[in-house]
Structure formats: C-alpha cells, structure tokens
Amino acid sequence: MLNNFSRQEVLRYSRHLMMPDVGLEGQLKLKTASVLMVGGGGLGSPIGLYLAAAGIGHIGIVDYDRVDMSNLQRQVIHGMSTLNELKVESARQRMLDINPDIQVDIYPEPFTSANARDIARNYQIIVDGTDNFPTRYLINDLCVLTQKPFVYGAVYRFEGQSSVFDAQRGPCYRCLFSQPPSPEMAPTCGDIGVLGVMPGLVGMIQATETIKLILGMGEPMIGKMMLIDAVSASFQTVQIQKNPHCPICGSQPVITDLIDYVEFCGVPFPGGQPHQASIPEITPTELAQRMTREDTLQLIDVRQTVEKQISDLPHAVNIPLDGLSQRLGQLDPDKDIVVFCRTGGRSAMAQSMLMKAGFTRVLNLRGGINAWAREVDPNVWQY
After folding, report:
1. Residue 141 maps to which CATH number?
2. Which of 172, 175, 249, 341 is catalytic?
3. How far apart are CA 138 and CA 172, in angstroms?
4. Which of 126, 140, 166, 336 has its CA 20 to 30 A from that of 382?
5. Into how many domains does the chain fold?
6. What CATH number does the domain containing 293 carry?
C-alpha cells in the first residue's frame, strides 16, 4: 500500500497516517476519491482549501463568477492577486499551491439542468457551496436520481446550517423543504450580508462530513441537521425524518428527471433577475434625466435601512423589501414608481410584488444604486 504514495505525500499526510482511523488505507481512499464542489465562493473557499489539503485526489469546481473586491471579506481562497479572475481559476491555483499532487478540474459555467448530469458524472459526492435555491434543489434532485450523497451548507448573517442528504440512507433536501420559499423570503448574502467567518465555519463542517463519507468513519449527518448561531455561540443538532410522500424520494415519486429550477423557485441564479418574460426597467441615465425634469416619480429604496449609510439617492423613500407588503397604502398607484436596491435583484422582487398587488406603473432601476454610481454619479459609493 505504501507504493501508492510518494515520499513527499507520506510527509504531507503524516498526521493522517499516524491516526488509526485513517492510516495508509484511509489516505488511499481520500486519494482515489472524487468530489464536486458547486460554488467557489464563501462556502467553497474552506471546502476547497481543506479537501485539497486532505488529499482528495480529484476535485471539480463549478462557478461562472469572477473574483470581486466585495468577495474578499469571506471568500478566503481568493486574494487581491486574483481580482477579476474567474473564481474557478483562482480557486484551482490556490488549491494546487496547497497540494500539487491532486487533480482539480474546473467548469466556468452555470450549473443547470442541461449540464448537471454531464459535469457530475465522474464524481462520487457533491458538495453545495451555493447561496441560491434553484441550484440547491437541482443538486438535491441530481443526487437523488444518481444515488450520490449531497453535503449541504447554508449561511444567513450570523447563522448557519449543515447536513448530509442521502436518499439511499435517509431523507433528501425535499423531505425537509418540499417547496421553496417565496422570492422575497429567499435573499442571498449579496442582498442581506453575512458575517465573514460564517461561511468558513459552515464550510469546514461540510469538508469534515465529506471526508467522513469517503473514509466511512463515524456518524455522517444523514438524518440530522446542525444549526449554528454565532451570536449565542450555540450549536444544535436536530433530527430529520424521511418523508414517505416526498415528491422525488418518496414511495411514489412525481419528479423523475431534472426540471427548470429557476421557474420552480421563482428566483434567479446569482446575478440574474427573477424568472419572468420581461420586466419594465429604467436605466440610471434615464432616471437621472427624468429627475432633472422634475417628473413626478415615487422613488422607493427597498434596501435595508443600514445600507443608506453607504449610499443614497435624493428624495428616495426607504421601504425595506421585507416590510413592503405592509406599506402598500403609502404608494400612489396613479404615479410612476421606481424601485431600486444595491444591484437590482431585490428591487425586481419588489416590482413583481407591487405588480401583483395591482400597481401597473412600476419600473426597476437596472443595476441598482451601484449602476447609478458607475453611470451617473461617481461620488456615490459602490459596495
């Protein structure tokens, strides 16, 4: 068995090799294992770093985004030297720097129903490093249909959760969440913020669970979910039961193939707009022109109030998205309403909510206040 390792690898993994629960046999399991990471950002950073360091022989990374300055507060696999690079390239470079004896394949594209099977075909385990519901449901359904474990993680401001979903041995994600939340209740960290260490904490738990699955040791979190609250410094584990009526892993499944997950969830992949044929928009330049003509506009800022401390627009009324439905009576349906947020995602949800409530003259500021800063007023700070 020693012949499967170079002298450098024996030195690298010596602290594993000294452990009876790992040893040469376990390290060989890690070396011959294959893991697909979907997402190379906040959660993907610690997952990628620790799986590479542990000696997982074949790691794939799916992510189509590029490294942005705002990522560096939590996405520790990236750095100033890789700003504007594809995240998969930046992550691969760092992972191979940690461990050049592994193989890292990259997929700089969205993970969708059209390509998920092909991408995941050669991997044993899929680890969720995303922050959106369409991809999460896609990963779950793919894992159920192909009988692969799904190592789950999610973060929300000061909170996090993690589990292992394996329909062969316990519940799947849909057993717990059969339907996605409404769009306004499904914010990403780009919408609401997140404490920088939370993805690191949750991602390391995911990496640990992945390694346990490969080694076949201990109790993986199948049928359990860990809930983390950093404010109260509490860790709680709750039991999850398999749902016999689950639409994909139950006794009579109604989902037998991958579906359109953007349509199912009604929310976009990161950087996109909610799933609908078209949404009436106004560009920052067009809005600036209308404001100089003193047009009668209702300018509604749907960001959290704390965000106004960074940037603001003149005469805008702040009504955060999560409280908009209770304040519809403050809006005049006979006037044009322009809604905006940081980059346009939350305001598109607000626009949809208003139009469903009967407001017909609602425009979304394309690109949000950050686009206003780039295109109209450079004195406004981007974030």
Report:
1. 3.40.50.720
2. 341
3. 12
4. 336
5. 2
6. 3.40.250.10
| Final residue in a domain of this structure, among 239, 265, 291 | 265
Instruction: Select which of 143, 172, 175, 189 is catalytic.
Output: 189
Asked whether the beta carbons of 240 and 171 are under 8 A apart, the reply is: yes
Please give the residue range of the domain that contains residue 322: 281-375
Q: How many helices (H) and strands (E) does the chain have?
A: 14, 13
6 is a domain residue: no
Please measure the distance between the N-terminal and C-terminal CA atoms of the chain and give it in whole angstroms. 53
Q: What is the mean pLDDT of residues 5-16?
A: 98
Residues 290 and 258 in one domain: no
* Whether residue 182 has pLDDT greater than 80: no
Residues 88-92: what's their mean pLDDT? Answer: 98
Q: Return all residues near 268 (Cβ < 8 A) that are at least 6 apart.
A: 132, 134, 262, 274, 275, 345
Measured CA distances, 10 to 16, 51, 53, 327 (Å): 9, 17, 13, 64
**Annotated catalytic, 265?**
no
With contact defined as beta carbons under 8 Å apart, do 164 and 213 qualify?
yes
Q: What distance lies between CA 352 and its chain's CA centroid?
A: 22
